Amino acid sequence: MMELNTISDILKKNNVKPSIQRMKIYEYLINKKTHPTVEEIYSVLSKELPTLSKTTVYNTLNAFIENGITQMLTIDENETRYDADISDHGHFKCTNCGKVFDFRFEKLNYEAKQLDGYEIKECHVYFKGMCKKCRK
Amino acid sequence: MMELNTISDILKKNNVKPSIQRMKIYEYLINKKTHPTVEEIYSVLSKELPTLSKTTVYNTLNAFIENGITQMLTIDENETRYDADISDHGHFKCTNCGKVFDFRFEKLNYEAKQLDGYEIKECHVYFKGMCKKCRK
DNA sequence: GTATCTGCAAAACATTTGCAATTCT
DNA sequence: AGAATTGCAAATGTTTTGCAGATAC
Predict the structure, then answer these.
(1) Of the candidates B101, B112, B127, which has its C-beta nearest A127's C-beta?
(2) This prediction's pTM
(3) Which nucleotide is closest, CA of B19 to its C1'?
(4) pLDDT value of position B129
(5) Residue B38 beta carbon within 7 A of nucleic strand C
(6) What is the pLDDT along chain B (136 residues), one digit of tens a residue?
(7) For residue A43, what are the CA distances in angstroms to A46, A48, B27?
(8) Which residue is the nearest neighbor of D8, CA to C1'?
(9) Rounded to an integer, what distance in angstroms lies between the CA atom of residue B77 and that of residue A78?
(10) Which residues from B are below 8 Å from A74, CB to CB?
């Protein structure tokens, strides 16, 4: 579990001034790892920060993205999710329970290099299907 | 270039009754291969079909998707694109010129099988970066 | 005390829905 | 005529913008 001190440092290092709203939003992303939507972040954090507005959630997430400490996941249309894990990894969404799981991949970078002439900066991979629990 | 006769047959085979609007939209998707947005389809086809409405474009694309002859691409948030090529392939979006290119991949299916316990039904891959022209 | 950040309300967009008019057979 | 399709207008939902008040340095 990452603590608020560490979070404050990460934000500062990445040119995001650490307000309480920004720290709590980053904390939620990095500790819960649920790839939440704006709605989820807003409704959970409103309990702790009763005056929080969705505008601030949007502003904050956009600032995180601009400064490279969060990525936007567009796994499903009309359901923008956010992820503070910016390492190369893929996502698996269970079409039954709706949960999103992470997985590592090795071979994709190799594959990416095959596309020569193109300069690849971002690499997004997601699968959809049924997770272990839902298949039982 | 696929002709309207062939398009009519494909739609019929897939339980979509071939109206002029539906045929023209499918023709645009399959022949132009530009992975257009609703807006692009609407503004281009309005010239030929002046009474065309966006509602019909949306209804038609949803019918195509339900019947498995078109896939939705969610490469960027707030920019839903459509593709009548339903074979397994990846997309590369140039962040400079905005164009979307196709590419084949072989190794991903192998990779997918590594995630055992999970039943994978759909496999989406996209890269972002600079295309050949924009790098010059 | 000046900059920045927050959050309300309104605006801007994208997509869906209800329904009447049109088209097809 | 009867059933399906089209397209307008209104509704819904999401994200952005404008701006006034609050907060931080």
Answers:
(1) B112
(2) 0.88
(3) D5
(4) 87
(5) yes
(6) 888 999 999 999 999 999 999 999 999 999 998 999 999 999 999 999 999 999 999 999 999 999 999 999 988 878 899 999 998 888 999 988 888 988 887 655 555 555 667 888 888 888 888 888 888 7
(7) 5, 10, 44
(8) B53
(9) 8
(10) 74-77
How far apart CA B29 and CA B18 sit, in angstroms, is: 15
Task: Kindly give the pairing relationship between strand A100-103 and strand A79-83.
Answer: unpaired
Q: Which residues of B46-82 are buried (b: 16+ CB within 10 A; e: fewer)?
A: eeeeeebeeebbeebbebbeeeebbbebbbbeebbbb
* A76 DSSP β-pair partners: A79
Instruction: Check CB contact under 8 Å for B111 and A119.
Output: no
Q: Which residue(s) pair with B123 in the sheet? A: A127
Q: Could you tell me the two tokens for A97?
A: 């329970």
